[in-house]
Structure formats: structure tokens, C-alpha cells
Amino acid sequence: MDVNHAKERRRLRDRFSKVITRKRSEGMIKRYASCTSIDSSSSSSSSSSGQRTPRNSQDIGSNTLTTPSESSQSSQVSSTSTSYPKASLLGIPGELRNQIYRYALLEDQLIKLNPQDHQLPGLLRTCRQIADEATDIYQTENNFQVDAWNMKLSIPENYAEHWMSSLEHCHFWITMRGAPDWENFWGWLRRYSTGEVPGLASGQPSNEAEILAQAFEIVHGLKKNLQFNQILPVLEAWKKSVVLAGADFVFP
User: Fold this and answer.
1) Which residue stretches belong to region Disordered (predicted)?
2) What is the b/e burial string over 145-168, where b = at least 16 CB atoms within 10 angstroms of the residue's CB?
3) Distance CA 184, CA 150 (A)
4) 11-20: per-residue pLDDT in tens?
5) What's the pTM value of the predicted model, to 2 decimals?
6) For a surface tag, which of 25, 56, 219, 226 has the fewest beta carbons within 10 Å of its beta carbon?
7) Residue 162: which of 172, 152, 170 has the closest Cα?
């Protein structure tokens, strides 16, 4: 009788323990579900009303968004503040400009000129200030050469108005070439007498060229008082004497 009673007590105790454990589990589940529901409803309410959790003023100021226009203005200001001036030849000191002019314009050899291509270098035609500053360097620190083929000087027809006419004789060389043509030579001397073209100066590299230079000396000495037609008989006599002397006026 006692044994049966003990078994019944153990059975009831185990059953009661299981019921208590189940009740506790159900209570925990209900409490978790309740908390989850409250959080989700709070979040959804905040989202639906459009309200945001405010931050302190320091956080708001430090993370303020800029509008596209403000961003564009900011980039423009930044670009302006870091921009550099454009390089300009006229913006550098004059001493440096003169060095650049000499580097660009001076030649080690004679600069050959001809009637078909006798413009000043492009640098001297860019603007008036550069022309004023650099033309003198080009014309006085270079040496120029023109040819006289068959005793006819090859220079522009408007030589008196041309920039070539401003070249000093010490920087202007005339090279004789070809065969003698006295009609060409008289025409050259005639234009020389009126100041239209330059002539041969004394100190020529060959005897024949030096003899021709003396004809220009004759014209130079007589043109102040005589017309060229009056000087021409003197030149004819000069020509006869040099031909009789055997001068060979054939130039390479």
C-alpha cells in the first residue's frame, strides 16, 4: 500500500513539473512577442509620421548637405583661387624678352634675301610692341646678302619704302653672279643715283667686284651736281679702260 502511494506521488510530481515548465515557456514566448510588437509599432509610427530622431546641433551642423548650386559655386571659387596667369611673352622682364628675341632671330650665317621672299620673320609681325622691340636686333645684329645676277640687283622694286632700305651697309652684302651685262649695270647705277637701290661699296672680296664698286664711287661723287645722263659719258670712259685692262667680269 505504501509502495503504490509512493509511485502515485512521483507520477503526480513529474506531471506537475512538466506543466510548470510548459507554463514558464509559454510566458516567456508571450513576453518576447509583446516586446517585439511594441518596437515594431513604434518604428512604424515614427516612419509613417515622417519624424526623425533629432540630433544635437553640433552633429547637424557638421553634416549639413549642400545643394547642387552651392557645390558648383564652391568649386568655382576653388578653381579661381588656384588658377595661374596665362604665359605671355610681353609679361616677362625686358631683359629676358631680348634674350628670347636674339635666340629666335639671330643667324650665324648670312641671311639671303630675294625679291620673291623678303618679308620680316613671323615673330616681328605678331604685334607692334614686339616689332618695335625686336626689329632693331634683327636688322643690326645679323648680316644680309642679296645677289646681282648678270649685273642686275635682285631686290624688291619698292626698295626705298622697303625694310631692306634701313639696313646699314656694314650688314648688307651684295654678291655678284653670272656674266657681264652693261645695260643692266647702267640701269643699276641710274637707280643708285636717285637713291632707289644700294650700290657696291669699296672693299669687295674680288678685284672684279672692287672695280665695279669704283663705278658707284664715281656716281656718288658726281650725282650732287649732275644728272645721270651727264654722268654716263664718264662711266663709258671708265668701262673702256677696265675692259682694255683685261678685267674679267664673269662671276660664279
Assistant:
1) 31-85
2) ebbbeebebbbbeebeeeebbebe
3) 7
4) 656 665 565 5
5) 0.60
6) 56
7) 172
